[in-house]
Write a structure and sequence with these properties.
2 helices; Peptide Deformylase; binds nickel (II) ion; 16% helix; alpha+beta; single chain; five-stranded antiparallel sheet
Length: 185
């Protein structure tokens, strides 16, 4: 496995559309997934899309929210792999929340996301994923799937005045954001 270079905002690879994968068991894809997980962990990220590592393929890895915060086994970080993910909105309602991105290091902003989505994808083992997601889990999946379509989170922001450096967020006493998760994805 190897740690890959992460593309930063402005590089055209981040604006391209990723291609669907025919064979998730292809050794090249298996290696890509392993490298993406290692790269995300090394960068302290919560999610990573393949075009962020200069590969225009529909692959996403992310760390889902824990159902039970009590199970605090530090070494046991679950990573979800999505191949050819598709998202369908299950609600017209959106919710504002903070987002960060490994392609925009040290920045964060308030992004509206659909509160409930249906996610369909292929898992790393080739099995089908079909889930209804809400809250942070729906948010991270929308952020990552946007990458595969060439969209970065500032392109979803309604108000660019909340685009700021992580180090300056402490100046905000009370903001309208309902979630504060500045995980970089
Ligand atoms: Ni991102």
């Amino acid at each position: 496995m190897s740690i890959l270079k992460i593309a930063r905002m402005g590089h055209p690879v981040l604006r391209g559309r990723a291609e669907a994968i025919d064979d998730p068991a292809d050794p090249e894809i298996v290696r890509l997934v392993a490298d993406m997980v290692e790269t995300m962990m090394d960068a302290n990220g919560r999610g990573l899309a393949a075009n962020q590592v200069y590969v225009q393929k529909q692959v996403v890895v992310y760390i889902p929210p824990r159902d039970n915060e009590e199970g605090d086994e530090e070494d046991d970080v679950e990573v979800v792999v999505l191949i050819n993910p598709r998202i369908e909105a299950l609600s017209e309602e959106t919710e504002d929340g903070w987002e960060g991105c490994l392609s925009l290091p040290e920045l964060c902003g308030i992004v509206p996301r659909i509160t409930r989505v249906r996610l369909r994808a292929i898992a790393a083992d080739g099995s089908a994923i079909d889930q209804e997601l809400s809250g942070y889990h729906a948010r991270v999946v929308q952020h990552e799937c946007d990458h595969l379509n060439g969209i970065l989170y500032p392109m979803r922001m309604r108000d660019l005045s909340s685009l700021m450096f992580d180090s300056e967020v402490s100046h905000l006493a009370s903001e309208p954001a309902t979630e504060t998760d500045d995980g970089q994805s």
